[in-house]
């Protein structure tokens, strides 16, 4: 019966290491804390991709995510997807995305997200993609997007339904 305590101890140690490494990638910028930064793998030839993350404002004044940049893409914009008369529509947030004090904003498939145009190379599962986010008050903030599987709906895999997938299958000219 000495094996069970050893297995439990090993499981507890593994869980502690995993939670510590996940927290090590949190990015703090002024009053903002950015966590769970990720993107999806894209097929060869894809020219667009989506970026997702969580932003918490621990301060007493609002801040605004204005844009992004990075060597991964020719342009990175802040976008929103919403339903309009039963049709999913996407639009750029020209004035950016406000993060109110004491609030958390999640950029996720099917909602707010980073839209990466003119991808320079395919995004490959397991890679990390450096991007710079620009905030009105916090300024420029470097984050690394973990590349998840094609169709992932959350960091670490999740649902592969493909809703809100920006892997090159959407015709942006029709928007």
UniProtKB/TrEMBL annotation:
SUPFAM superfamilies recorded: DR1885-like metal-binding protein
Spans annotated as Disordered: 152-175
Compositional bias annotation for Basic and acidic residues: 160-175
Pfam families: PCuAC (PF04314)
Stretch forming the signal peptide: 1-24
Domain of life: Bacteria
UniProt KW keywords: Signal
Coiled coil residues, start to end: none
UniProt name for this protein: Copper chaperone PCu(A)C
Organism encoding this protein: Bradyrhizobium brasilense
């Amino acid at each position: 019966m000495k094996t069970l305590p050893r297995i439990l101890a090993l499981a507890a140690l593994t869980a502690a290491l995993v939670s510590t490494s996940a927290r090590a990638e949190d990015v703090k910028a002024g009053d903002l804390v950015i966590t769970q930064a990720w993107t999806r793998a894209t097929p060869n030839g894809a020219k667009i991709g989506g970026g997702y993350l969580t932003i918490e404002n621990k301060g007493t004044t609002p801040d605004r995510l204005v844009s992004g940049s990075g060597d991964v893409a020719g342009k990175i914009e802040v976008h929103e997807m919403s339903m309009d008369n039963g049709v999913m529509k996407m639009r750029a947030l020209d004035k950016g995305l406000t993060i109110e004090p004491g609030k958390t904003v999640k950029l996720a498939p099917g909602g707010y997200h980073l839209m990466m145009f003119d991808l320079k190379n395919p995004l490959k599962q397991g890679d990390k993609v450096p991007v710079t986010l620009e905030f009105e008050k916090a300024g420029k903030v470097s984050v690394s997007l973990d590349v998840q599987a094609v169709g992932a709906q959350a960091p670490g895999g999740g649902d592969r339904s493909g809703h809100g997938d920006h892997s090159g299958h959407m015709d942006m000219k029709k928007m």
